[in-house]
Amino acid sequence: DKGGHKHYMAKEIAEQPHVIAEAIRHYLPVGDDMVHLPGDGIDFTKVQRLTMVACGTAYYACLTAKYWFEKIARLPVEVDVASEFRYREPPITEGTLALFVSQSGETADTLAALRFCQDKADKIVSVVNVPESSIARESDLALPIYAGVEIGVASTKAFTCQLAVLLMLALKAANDRGEISAEDLADHVSGLRGLPNTLNTALEQNDAIQQAAQHLSEARDVLFLGRGVMYPLAHEGALKLKEISYIHAEAYASGELKHGPIALIDQHMPVVVLAPRDALFDKTVSNMQEVMARKGKVLLVSDKDGLDEARDGTWITIQMPPIMENLTPILYSIPAQLLAYHTAVAKGTDVDQPRNLAKSVTVE
Ligand code: M6R
């Protein structure tokens, strides 16, 4: 049942305010500002290092979480794609918490990486959408994301629910380790609780994004730029576009542009810049101006302050509501997903069943 939508992907994008509210309610029960974990939970005072392993979109959720765990909880984090992790034979030292993120819980490489860690890490934790899955069952602790069944091959609501759960986990780590003030914790908690509303406001940009996608669908290649906590989302935006529209897309940290990829820029190259008005915004604007000086077409996604400051010379703008910096990757997932979705629809591809892809990759 597509619930009146043309595709499961559209339905799943639209469901995000609701499912994220579910996820948040399970970990942050109403009336309590402490993050609660199921079962024995995790005592982060004993954790010295976090090793995160996943594939595809779940890997980009891990990369985003690295920014949170390091910045908010001051906990060192390593992130790896599952297909590389095990073969590198990484040393797993005492005090390591191994964290596996998987929507299906059946991804062969992620499961193999989990088994590699089983007698080496202090604790194996997974963040999964399917609680009965192999990865959940073989973990010491499984943290459900409550996204509900995801049918579209391109992951959308599972990604944002993974992010919400990982951010709550980072807040728990920060609190256990005494790295966050009560005030800062309360700010994050109220930001999270307000998130479903903010996501609804972002979804109202659907028509504007659909129009932008008409133009994007004519491109052969697209670049995505982001920096800081938005850099992994640039990768996720590029992956989404590749998967369903078959347009070649790549992501770079904004500051890396001048170290090579700027050579690609000409009037045929759309560059999607995911840039809320944050502490690094001015630097991103100067990267963007380098693109425009070479006739590159900038599609800027930002908030009102950011657009007021940097709209001049851009090709297309999409406005997001303002939100605290650590929540921007969750909010800006909406335009990234909708842009890919509408571009694919404009190209007439099979959005829910893109060629060559399977929902669950159970071979290594
Ligand atoms: O089920 P998993 O989260 O372990 O799947 C990992 C990847 O195969 C998955 O995220 C894939 O990249 C999606 N098609 C992304 O949209």
UniProtKB/TrEMBL annotation:
Subcellular location: Cytoplasm
EC number annotated for this UniProt entry: 2.6.1.16
Keyword Lipid metabolism: no
Keywords assigned by UniProt, alphabetized: Aminotransferase, Cytoplasm, Glutamine amidotransferase, Repeat, Transferase
Gene Ontology MF terms: glutamine-fructose-6-phosphate transaminase (isomerizing) activity
Domain SIS, first and last residues per copy: 34-179, 212-354
Catalytic activity: D-fructose 6-phosphate + L-glutamine = D-glucosamine 6-phosphate + L-glutamate
Enzyme class: transferase
Active site: K359 (for fru-6p isomerization activity)
Signal peptide: none
Subunit composition and interactions: Homodimer.
Known function: Catalyzes the first step in hexosamine metabolism, converting fructose-6P into glucosamine-6P using glutamine as a nitrogen source.
Name of the protein: Glutamine--fructose-6-phosphate aminotransferase [isomerizing]
